[in-house]
């Protein structure tokens, strides 16, 4: 089967690796960029995605890139603790959560693709057209520096990100991503470890928030690189560019009061090498991803808010599910339909939850019920309500420990094919 993937991001590369593991060999990836530079800052891989990477034989390679957070703790904008929960292995999962640099993850996946499949990534190829009038094949058209080139395949996968060309070809009226009105400033900084040196923290509420997590274990000098996302409503613009660099001074100023005994937030922002501004955008759910021999995957199918920690993880789950279906369904059309039937409702439910701020709802509740702080969080939000909010999101995102640990594998038994 000839398989063409548009986009060599985390989703496209994970799809190639999943297809290779499921027995496919004729796989080509076409990437718009002339070079894969490994851009971005931090990204979290939740245990359900780490499971898939482990089953692809990538656990050590990816594990070496980052830090497995021990704990997630929510604080108010006054620095008071609301809720804390263990993460990864400490929470009873068979697989850890991993905080990694997005660019290093992308380069590690690219390296694995080249080792396993050879020279299959074609750079400088931008998907611009699709013709599947034949029904039994699909021809993708790519714009290159020399003109355009047509590539015929049995299956075409659009893993071409939030500005997906394949999505726009299928849904010409889709328009721009939807802006929540929040602006994110992302960066990394080398600082003294805070709390236990492996805790992901979120402080604030729906108006203004700060998220941080370590990306490296402490180095010889005892300091470590952390990733952070500062967030504020009512400033910035909806222009979507992952790499727009801005002056840190106004953002440091927005957080000047947020100096806590567990972390000095303005000092962390000021220590950043570079601040990247990004609007908190997503896209509305689609009525279908699959059209005959073509389908969408990752952000192209279901771009979500980046701070839901699910962008990379859901793309990896898509990749594994699609490869499993292509290897086991009676025809490519049936496989793509089944992939759509399984993954689309799952990600649609998650999208709805992330729009309601997912597990971060506890921060908003604390702000609404006790805007000036509290003596005891349980006077404000009962323990049972805190637990229910955390469990609800994990179940919807497919990473409740019980269901993830019990779910059957998406690895294809090649000898039985
Ligand atoms: C430069 C960049 C930086 C990012 N930084 C972060 C970050 O710091 N934190 C975070 O949580 N998430 C970040 N993300 C998003 C995150 O990688 C995705 O949400 C997630 O990994 C899902 O991956 P994806 O493969 O679906 O999309 P992406 O990772 O966006 O990959 C899409 C790929 O398709 C390529 N492409 C686009 N259009 C075409 C076309 N027409 N033809 C061919 N190829 C095309 C793009 O160049 C890109 O390589 C970033 C994405 C990018 C592209």
From TrEMBL:
Transmembrane segments: none
Keyword tags: Monooxygenase, Oxidoreductase
Domain FAD-binding: 3-168, 285-352
Top-level division of the source organism's lineage: Bacteria
Protein name (Swiss-Prot/TrEMBL): Flavin-dependent oxidoreductase
Organism in which the protein naturally occurs: Agromyces aurantiacus
Classification lineage: Bacteria, Bacillati, Actinomycetota, Actinomycetes, Micrococcales
């Amino acid at each position: 089967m000839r398989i063409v993937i548009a986009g060599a991001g985390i989703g496209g590369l994970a799809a190639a690796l999943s297809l290779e593991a499921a027995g496919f060999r004729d796989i080509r990836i076409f990437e718009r960029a002339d070079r894969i530079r490994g851009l971005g800052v931090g990204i979290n891989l939740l245990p359900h995605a780490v499971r898939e990477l482990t089953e692809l034989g990538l656990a050590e390679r990816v594990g070496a890139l980052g830090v497995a957070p021990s704990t997630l703790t929510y604080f108010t904008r006054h620095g008071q603790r609301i809720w804390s929960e263990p993460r990864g292995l400490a929470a009873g999962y068979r697989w850890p959560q991993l905080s990694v640099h997005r660019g290093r993850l992308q380069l590690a996946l690219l390296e694995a693709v080249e080792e396993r499949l050879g020279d299959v990534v074609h750079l400088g190829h931008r998907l611009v057209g699709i013709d599947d009038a034949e029904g039994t094949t699909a021809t993708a058209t790519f714009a290159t520096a020399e003109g355009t080139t047509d590539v015929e395949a049995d299956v075409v996968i659009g893993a071409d990100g939030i500005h997906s060309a394949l999505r726009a070809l299928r849904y010409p009226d889709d328009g721009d991503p939807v802006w929540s009105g929040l602006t994110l400033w992302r960066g990394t900084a080398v600082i003294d470890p805070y709390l236990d040196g492996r805790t992901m923290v979120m402080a604030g509420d729906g108006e203004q928030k700060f998220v941080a997590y370590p990306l490296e274990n402490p180095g010889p000098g005892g300091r470590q690189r952390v990733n952070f996302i500062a967030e504020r409503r009512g400033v910035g613009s909806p222009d979507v560019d992952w790499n727009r660099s801005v002056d840190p001074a106004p953002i440091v100023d927005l957080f000047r009061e947020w100096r806590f005994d567990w972390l000095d937030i303005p000092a962390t922002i000021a220590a950043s090498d570079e601040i990247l501004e990004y609007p908190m955008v997503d896209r509305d759910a689609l009525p279908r991803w699959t059209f005959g021999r073509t389908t969408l995957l990752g952000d192209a199918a279901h771009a979500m808010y980046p701070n839901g920690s699910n962008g990379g993880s859901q793309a990896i789950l898509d990749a594994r599910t699609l490869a499993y279906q292509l290897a086991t369904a009676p025809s490519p059309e049936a496989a793509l339909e089944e992939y759509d039937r399984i993954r689309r409702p799952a990600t649609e439910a998650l999208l709805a939850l992330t729009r309601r701020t997912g597990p971060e709802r506890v921060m908003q509740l604390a702000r609404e019920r006790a805007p000036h702080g509290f003596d005891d969080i349980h006077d404000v939000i009962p323990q049972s309500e805190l637990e229910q909010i955390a469990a609800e999101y994990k179940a919807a995102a497919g990473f409740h420990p019980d269901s993830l640990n019990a779910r059957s594998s998406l690895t294809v038994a090649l000898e039985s094919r």
